[in-house]
């Protein structure tokens, strides 16, 4: 099939309309989930704009490496995970992109702590006490709603390892909950 | 509790569980698609080219340069004696740029390329940024409501054009647009390409806007000529908005490293329209942030955090904003590099570090 090509004047590289249309579909289809993924993992909402911008920019530059269908979102989560790791090390490079999104998220501000019930905060506190691999597999499973085989793609491990890690992480989480006086007290009041 | 109860507890703790979805940001998409594809090259500004360099030389204003070419230069203080390139508006339209954080060449380009929409009185302009060739954005605020507008080149129009059966035809000054509802009280207008240069714009109500209220906003907005728009922007952009936009430029285009846990709202406290004073204050806040990060990282003894803090502090002599300030006679570069050397390599005591923080933070 003939594909229309044009040259980007700044770099001289060729980009097909098909590539652009496909990226556009991936962007439209994954944006909300990727932003939510980032928002769950940064302290300041505006920082999520940097993570999303850098993740999609990397994806755009990799072009045809983007997998098809739902796999694309999992692949993007995997990139975002590495971008976030860099962000938490203080090494993230803020892109000159996404300033409007950053502004919008900044306007929204962080969630009002008064609106969050105490056991939700306690659960998040317990999650933070888990090792990163355990915490991440729980978040991918219960917050992003991924199946173990999907979490495995994001984490770069086999499905077997992801299942085992999820099982271990759930066990660790239950131990922490059971030993947490504050959360048990909240539960008993209900 | 059963296993399901623990799982539900986790689901309930999701901070995004009740969040209002944020729809795909079309400006970010357009910016990414304007980037070169398929090569791992350092980020390069799309806006910079020979024509821009000529324009910069002509107007005597320093703007950011290609980040791949080494140190980017921070936009310096706007010159009150702005020359006028033949295609640009007259210099007489720019007097308000003096004593402002705005950069005349940026405003002029935005005026030439953008849709030059001006809302009714009471709407404060809080944001004007050029993102590329015929690509930019601005925002207005009133009583907590923010309206964004972005403009684009013709090439992007086929992707954005709304299906007209779902859209309401509106007029925005001299522009014709099509308004659609995005749900959650959010409305977006897409204007038809402007005759001549094909530039078109979106006007985004943000969430929580009533339809009648937004239609009223659109009906009261007007479009003006280049010179009139420049005058309105130069006098209308809020101090906080100008500070926000300049901070963005200094970080992103000027390559200033942003410290972890950056307290962006702190910028609003730097209430000045003097470029040199603003750059000085901002740089001190950044240096303070890295000094604090150095303390935190060394206390933890974690090299993953120590290394970026050390690199940032010892690299402060190359921060373009400091280099530019030094060219203007400031001694801040020497102060900060001396502090960084003493703290990182000189074994400054905790008391000495705290003393440095008192002068910076």
Question: What would you say this structure looks like, in words?
Answer:
The complex is a heterodimer of chains A (190) and B (361). With 190 residues, chain A is mainly α. In chain A, strand 1 and strand 2 form a beta hairpin. Chain A is built from 9 helices and 2 strands. By secondary structure, chain B is an alpha+beta fold. Chain B has 2 domains: 91-96 and 240-360, no CATH class; 104-236, Protein Transport Mog1p, Chain A (3-Layer(aba) Sandwich). In chain B, 41% of the residues lie in helices and 15% in strands. Chain B has helices at residues 3-12, 26-33, 50-59, 104-113, 157-160, 211-220, 226-236, 239-252, 275-300, 303-314, 320-327, 332-344, 350-360, and strands at 117-118, 124-132, 135-142, 145-152, 168-172, 175-183, 186-191, 200-204, 222-223. Residues 39-74 and 77-98 of chain B have low confidence and may be disordered. Classes of the chains: A mainly alpha (190), B alpha+beta (361).
Give a summary of the structure in a few sentences:
The complex is a heterodimer of chains A (190) and B (361). Chain A is mainly alpha-helical and 190 residues long.
């Amino acid at each position: 099939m003939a594909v229309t090509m044009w040259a980007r004047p700044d770099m001289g590289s060729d980009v097909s309309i098909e590539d652009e249309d496909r990226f556009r579909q991936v962007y439209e289809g994954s944006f909300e989930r990727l932003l939510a993924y980032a928002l769950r993992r940064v302290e300041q909402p505006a920082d999520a704009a940097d993570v999303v911008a850098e993740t999609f920019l990397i994806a755009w530059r990799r072009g045809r490496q983007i997998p098809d269908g739902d796999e694309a979102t999992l692949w993007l989560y995997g990139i975002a995970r590495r971008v976030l790791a860099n962000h938490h090390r203080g090494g993230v490079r803020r892109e000159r992109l996404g300033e409007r999104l950053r502004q919008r998220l900044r306007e929204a501000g962080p969630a009002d702590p008064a609106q969050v019930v105490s056991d939700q905060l306690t659960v998040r506190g317990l999650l933070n006490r888990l090792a990163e691999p355990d915490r991440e597999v729980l978040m991918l499973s219960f917050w992003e709603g991924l199946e173990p085989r999907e979490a495995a793609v994001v984490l770069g491990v086999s499905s077997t390892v992801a299942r085992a890690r999820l099982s271990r992480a759930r066990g660790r989480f239950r131990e922490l909950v059971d030993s947490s006086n504050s959360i048990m007290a909240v539960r008993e009041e209900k | 509790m059963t296993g399901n109860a623990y799982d539900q507890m986790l689901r309930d703790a999701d901070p995004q569980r009740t969040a209002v979805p944020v729809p795909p940001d079309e400006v970010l998409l357009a910016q990414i698609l304007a980037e070169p594809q398929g090569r791992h090259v350092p980020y390069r500004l799309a806006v910079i080219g020979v024509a821009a360099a000529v324009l910069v030389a002509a107007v005597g204003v320093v703007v950011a340069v290609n980040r791949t070419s080494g140190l980017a230069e921070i936009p310096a203080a706007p010159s009150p004696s702005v020359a006028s390139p033949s295609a640009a508006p007259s210099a007489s339209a720019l007097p308000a740029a003096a004593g402002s954080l705005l950069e005349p060449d940026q405003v002029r380009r935005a005026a030439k390329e953008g849709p030059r929409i001006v809302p009714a009185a009471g709407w404060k302009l809080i944001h004007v940024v050029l993102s590329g060739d015929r690509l930019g954005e601005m925002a207005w605020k009133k009583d907590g409501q923010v309206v964004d507008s972005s403009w684009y080149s013709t090439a992007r129009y086929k992707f954005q054009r709304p299906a007209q059966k779902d859209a309401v035809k509106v007029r925005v000054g001299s522009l014709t647009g099509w308004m659609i509802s995005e749900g959650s009280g959010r409305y977006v207008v897409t204007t038809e390409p402007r005759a001549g240069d094909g530039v078109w714009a979106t006007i985004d109500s943000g969430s929580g806007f009533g339809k009648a209220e937004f239609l009223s906003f659109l009906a009261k907005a007007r479009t003006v000529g280049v010179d009139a728009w420049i005058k309105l922007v130069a006098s209308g952009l809020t101090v906080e908005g100008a500070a926000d936009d300049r901070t963005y430029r200094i970080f992103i285009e000027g390559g200033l490293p942003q410290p972890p846990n950056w307290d962006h709202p702190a910028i609003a406290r730097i209430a000045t329209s003097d470029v040199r004073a603003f750059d000085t204050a901002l740089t001190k806040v950044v240096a303070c942030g890295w000094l604090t990060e150095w303390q935190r990282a060394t206390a933890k003894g974690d090299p993953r955090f120590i290394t970026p803090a050390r690199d940032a502090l010892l690299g402060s002599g190359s921060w373009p904003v400091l280099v530019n300030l030094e060219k203007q006679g400031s001694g801040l570069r020497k102060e900060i590099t001396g502090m960084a050397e003493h703290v990182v390599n000189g074994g400054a005591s905790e008391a000495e570090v705290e003393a440095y923080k008192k002068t910076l933070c």
